[in-house]
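Model: You mentioned two targets. I'll fold them one after the other.
Researcher: Yes, keep them separate.
Model: Target one:
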Amino acid sequence: MATLDDAIDAITADITTIGVSTSNVVGGEVTGGGYTPLAPTYAASTASAADITAALEFDGPAGTVATHLIYRTAAGVLRVVALAASRTFNSDGRLDVTSAEVTAAFGS
């Protein structure tokens, strides 16, 4: 639906960085190991969903368990979202995020 796709495109255009957190609060964001939030690029929304066009390759402390993504705009934190399953920075201190989908639906 064009209206939802337009709304999603507006939201994803405003997302400046995505970060990784060890809890459901901004204060739980990963630190150390060269970690920094990364700027995503989103594909245009279709069928009320848009996803990143390339993996986000985070550096951080090896063995750190990530449980949430932090979506930010220029105005600050947009949302902290739980991962479907926790992920761990590998022994080289790398964690790749291959999907950070944004969806929308009309309520009934």
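Model: Target two:
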Amino acid sequence: MKIRLIIFFLFLTSISGTIWYSCSKESESQPIQKDNVTQDNKSVDELMMYYYAQSSKDRNVFNKIWKWISAHVGTHLFQNCNGSSQCGPCPGICIPLTKSSDLFTPVDENYQISNQDYLDGERLCQIALFNDSIMGFTFIHDGFVYQDSLYIPKDFDIGSSASALFEKTSIIVKKGTYPVSFSQSRNGSTIVNVECK
């Protein structure tokens, strides 16, 4: 089992340099500017399929790497999103103008959110810290993805509670346009750039 984990993390380290490139497409419908980091769907699929193939043999590996969290969906920060509510009306992760609490909240062992939290805009997803520069997202609910991409209009810290799940003080998700693959999850999966402390 330890050998599999070592091989897995070596694979992640070697692929990390190949999954990012600068976004070169500028479009009227592109919500954020073209100079953000992105990667292609093929790389997301390859990494996710490799991970799931390894973890399907041992559920304990899956539970150690993937953590359930809830996050508030909706943003107004897209370049072409018309609205003023800090958590709407466009799909995405709500990034408040002032940080008053953690953006990601760990979910208990029931892996559920209350009806009231759902009505308030909270949605479930899973996150996995593959290494200190790559984090995986698998979306359990919709509301995060727009035009098959996860748009992060500015850097944000996921919060101390979620960072502690990975024994980190801080995990900052980097601004970027991240293609979402639907081969592993009905609501999509993606890989994002992060900075850990």
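Researcher: Noted. Anything on target two?
Model: The first helix runs from residue 2 to 16.
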